[in-house]
Amino acid sequence: MSSALLLASILTASAINEAPAPATPEPVAARPAAETSLASATLFSPEEIFYEPASPATVSAASWQANGATTLDYQVTSLDTSLVRAQNYDEDPSGGNLSQQTFAAPPIGAPFTQQGTIWPGTPLLAPNGMAGGPPPTATMQGINGPQPFRFGWTSKFDVGFIPDETASNVGTGKLSIFEFNSEIRYTAPTPMQWIFSVAPQFNLRLWDGPTTPALPGDVYRFGTDLQLTSPTWGPYTFELGFTPSLNTSFEAPISSDAWNFDGRGAVFIRTSPQWLLVLGAMYWDRVDEIVLPYAGLVYTPNDYVEIRAMFPRADASLFIGTPWGIPQWLYIAGEYHVEAYEIERAATTRDQIQIQDWRAVLGIRSEHAGMTSFLEGGWVFDRNGEFRNTAPTKFDLNSGFIVRFGIRW
Hints:
Elements: E1 5-6, E2 50-53, H1 61-67, E3 73-78, E4 102-104, E5 113-114, E6 117-118, E7 139-140, E8 152-168, E9 174-189, E10 195-208, E11 218-229, E12 231-232, E13 236-248, E14 259-270, E15 275-285, E16 289-293, E17 295-299, E18 305-311, E19 313-321, E20 328-346, E21 349-368, E22 371-387, E23 394-397, E24 400-408
């Protein structure tokens, strides 16, 4: 005998918020909040999902509880307006029947209980995205939340240019900068329901000028970012990151000044479906030892607007439609940026240079066929360079224009 079972979810809202996170180009010296999935969303609208046994059988309430998630599979029979979010999915615009999606029977004693209803679990997430094993017993930032982590490999490449600007305060001549940034990241779940990612990075800077101080024409950065993200316990998710890198012009033998060891840690607190609070700090190993807040608020009121009032990078995004069938987002962003390299000041003199600035940009991001691209332009200001060991120890650079383009897939 077939019976219909109505399952209610306890997740935070009754409709999916599918607003993607805004494009956030990867700065060389920082891992901004952009690298963390911070938007707000729910997995499905519980009012629209109904289940029945996947095969004809007599299933009593006692056998449901006795078997738990081990023997009974239940199948979606109708779904009007919502879709379960997973690592990869095809969205049916009509919200039609997802007859191929099956769900394990709910585990007894799972924390997703409210007035006798239990989160059903799903093979796409059980446990939290791993194949096999029991249904999840904890949500996870980026999976049972805003945007799923993309398990496996993802790639990022972008280029930028700052035209000639005058050096001052013991500096003479002009400096222009061409930058190339790349990252290939591998993300995977761990047996303890944490998510671990490792990301080899390569960055190139081509410097033309100034006259004084004399700088090399090219410098290189080879880094590896390691990130560990916890399951979500209640409203809390934790993140730890460590990024060692080698930064040099290769003009002289490498010393300890060529190495940067950066770190970060934060707790993400989901206070409501619209608000996310971030509390943390980050350390940048440069000429100066820089400790910064890695903190702020993320506000996602609807599917069209997202505001990330974060430091060291803040941005606000507005969905502007789908011209030619391609979703487009307009965004403004501000960022504090610092990078450092070991260079050769003279034939036998090694030194470390630090270049820092503030950036404000206006950009547009496009998403199509699994690829995201962005084009942005704006103003770079409050710029200066600083040496660790030799005079002149500091010089300034005039404010100027910056333009960047990048792709993610």
